[in-house]
């Protein structure tokens, strides 16, 4: 069975995010002065084969920890859904 | 009122994603051979002040189109929720 995993990787709150500061500054310059905070992270979509949702979920968790994120400075969250064809 | 917007920016399906190919290749090397497709995009969190959800939503849509994504090669989607303090 095929599963679609959506993984969001974000910098931990305590970690400085220069890219977010740059985007916020650009938005302010463009007139969007009501934007108070911007954080930039990564977004990944993976399609994987697994017997059931629990197995898919466990594997996505493991891959996120081992490769997709840097646990020292980043957090991750993910959701799993059945993939179309 | 404060709103938290979560924006996902992804490459259009037809656009080559070398970063995704690299991640997929790394995962295969690590033994995750059941991973069939990986696409890498950006994930942004923005906090903004707006009178109501519709205004916040319209502004996030506009900012995504004008700055956060490149409409030629990227798609975006977003969700809006009330922000904590």
What does this structure look like?
The structure is a homodimer of 85-residue chains. Chain A is of the alpha+beta class. The first copy, chain A, has one domain (2-82): Phosphoribosylformylglycinamidine synthase subunit PurS (Mth169, Chain: A, 2-Layer Sandwich). In chain A, 33% of the residues lie in helices and 40% in strands. Chain A is built from 2 helices and 3 strands; from the N terminus they run βαβαβ. The first copy, chain A, has helices at 18-29, 53-68, and strands at residues 2-11, 35-49, 74-82. Chain A has a 3-stranded antiparallel sheet. β2 of chain A pairs antiparallel with β2 (35-49) of chain B, so a sheet runs across the interface.
Structural class of chain A: alpha+beta
Major β-sheet of chain A, in short?
3 strands, antiparallel
What is the name of the CATH superfamily of chain A? Answer: Phosphoribosylformylglycinamidine synthase subunit PurS
**Gap between N and C termini of chain A, in Å?**
10 Å
């Amino acid at each position: 069975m095929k599963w679609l995993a959506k993984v969001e990787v974000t910098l931990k709150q305590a970690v400085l995010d220069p890219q977010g500061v740059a985007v916020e500054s650009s938005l302010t310059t463009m007139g969007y002065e009501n934007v108070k905070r911007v954080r930039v992270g990564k977004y990944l979509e993976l399609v994987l084969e697994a017997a059931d949702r629990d197995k898919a979920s466990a594997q996505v968790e493991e891959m996120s920890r081992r490769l997709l994120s840097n646990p020292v400075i980043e957090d991750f969250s993910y959701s799993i859904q059945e993939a179309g064809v």
